Structures are given as C-alpha cells and as structure tokens.
Amino acid sequence: MSLDAGAAIGVFDSGVGGLTVLNALRVVLPNEHLVYLGDTARVPYGTKSAVSVMRYAEQAAAALHGRHIKAIVIACNTVSAMALEHLQACYPDIPVLGVIEPGANAACETTRSGHIGVIATESTTHNQAYQKAILERLPAARVRAQACSLFVALAEEGWHKGELVEQIVARCLSPLLDVESQEALDTLVLGCTHFPTLRHAIKQVVGDGICLVDSAQTTAVVVKQQLAKEGLLNPGSEPGYLTFLVTDGPERFARVANNFFDETIDPAAVELVDIQHVSPGTVAAACKPANCV
Questions:
Q1: Is the pLDDT of residue 80 over 80?
Q2: pLDDT at 282 over 60
Q3: pLDDT at position 292 over 90
Q4: What's this model's pTM, rounded to 2 decimal places?
C-alpha cells in the first residue's frame, strides 16, 4: 500500500496525558497534520488488565486507521508496554511507534553510573517494559521502578507545583531515593505521559544530581526520523492542522487539556466518537489472524 506523505499522523492515548506527546510532535514536526484520539470514556488504562488494554488499543488504532493516516503514535506508556508489537503486526503497512523504546534509549544515553529509575503507572511498572528495554541496551544497568499512579490525578487537576505537590512527590519517590549513595540514581525516566507536567515539582525533590528523561520529547524525535526514513515527511510548508477525537466528555477534555497542551482547545472543535463498537471485521481485516486476540 502506498502511503500519502501529506496524510495525517494518528496519535492515541487513554485520555489527556498523551497531549504532552502531541506538544512535542508539534514542536518537532510543525507542518504535520495530527489526529489525536483520547479514549476518555475508559480512562485510566493504567489500572486495567492486559486483555482490556489490548482490546482498547485495537479499537483506537482501527478508528484512526479508518481516517487514512500515514502513521500511528501510541502516546500511552501502558499501551506501548502491552500492545505495541500486536498493533505493529496488525498494521504492517504503516509505521506504528510507542513511547517506551525512545524513552529507554534516552535513559541509556543519559546515565553516567548505569543506575536508572523509572516512574510510571501500576500496569507499566508491573509489565517491566522499561526495565527490559533498558537492560537490552545496557545489560549492566541497575533499574528500579516505582508506580506513582497518584501523579495522574495531580496532573489532571492542574496541581503541578507548590509545597503540597512536592510533599506528595517526595513521599511517592522515597523508595527510589532512600538508598545508599553508591546505589543512588543519576537518571529518572518519566514513564507516563502525564508526568512531564509535574517536571518542576519532581526536579525540586530529586535535585540537580538526577537527570529527568521525558519520553514524550524523545518519541517525537524518533517519529520524525522514522517518517524521514520512509519518505513520509509532509512536503508542505504550512502549519499542520489538528483534529481532536474523544470517546466521552468533549467539554471536560478541552478544559483539562489546558494542563497538558500548549494551545487552547475549543470544546466545539472536539469530535465525540464511538470506538467501543468497532466491527470485529474491521480489526480482523487489518490483523494477521495468528496475532489477533
């Protein structure tokens, strides 16, 4: 199948956190058209079972694929951990990229001591996707992960800075930070797309001795490299358009998005879509039967 370099890039997440990836894509690829899908009816994914996350991912990808996109970016660490390879098998004709591999690469390039921490949702830490990806690249690394699901609520409520937020951050990070100096981290991966909004508070807690790795920024660079490699960069010079799709609550999405996205979103411009009733044939037609669940 021949892809149109002028087509849009599809981006999906469980809700609003993936807007941090969208921000980065807008900076790195300002003339690319972007279609963002937030599955706000079923957020959060981070506490769901692998079976549920796989099904949600299939439906979101199918909905985006139906819009004739040229690439899919999974702007969700949980889906990247559980369903990236599956979706790549389902859509072999277009690039499908996640956020974990770029984040792991950046962590390995950043660390000086090989002591790396990962903070993420419960599902991502339990899956150990970051740990495995980092150790594949840097076998001698010592990787410790901590679930910080409470950070998601802080981010969505707009509680990004201040003494109270820093106290909560310090309490959640204490298992990673309360170690002997020879085991101390020098790199911390923000393994959830909500977490970059808390960057200031996290930095206040961890200090200058620990470098923060934002998987959203590194993912945008990898997307650009992949599109260039496949000759799919938009040849136009005008700023790309944005399309927003949600599965519930367009008004709330637009309001909460102010905590994550650098541009104001008009609620009237957010399209409500139903992806929960995607025809099984739609997904099956794109997937190889052996890879489908």
A1: yes
A2: no
A3: no
A4: 0.89
C-alpha gyration radius of the chain: 18
Is position 193 annotated in a ligand binding site?
yes
Question: Active-site residues: which are they?
Answer: 76, 192
- 50 Cβ contact list (under 8 Å, min separation 6): 82, 123, 127
Backbone angles phi, psi at 34, to 5 degrees: -130, 130
Over the range 168-182, which residues count as b (16 or more CB within 10 Å of their CB) and which as e?
A: bbeebbeebbeeeee
46-55, 58-67, 221-230, 249-258 — which is least confidently predicted?
A: 46-55
Helix H segments across the chain?
19-28, 50-65, 77-90, 100-110, 122-127, 129-137, 150-156, 163-177, 199-206, 215-229, 250-256, 280-286
Whether 45 has a binding-site annotation, put simply, is yes
Domains within the chain, CATH numbers bracketed: 9-98+217-291 (3.40.50.1860), 100-216 (3.40.50.1860)
SS3 292: coil
Q: Would you state the pLDDT for residue 204?
A: 96
Structure confidence by residue, pLDDT tens digits, 82-96: 999 999 999 999 999
The predicted structure's pLDDT at residue 290: 33
Report the pLDDT value the prediction gives residue 173, as an integer from 0 to 100. Answer: 96
* Structure-model confidence comparison of residues 285 and 180, the more confident one: 180
Cis peptide before 44 (omega within 30 of 0): yes
Q: Tell me: is residue 91 an annotated ligand-binding position.
A: no
78 is in an annotated binding site: yes
Say if CB 13 and CB 38 are below 8 A apart.
yes
The 3-class secondary structure across 12-77, one letter per residue, is: EECCCCCHHHHHHHHHHCCCCCEEEEECCCCCCCCCCCHHHHHHHHHHHHHHHHCCCCCEEEECCH
- pLDDT reading at 226 higher than 50: yes
Q: How many CA atoms lie within 13 A of 242 on its CB side?
A: 18
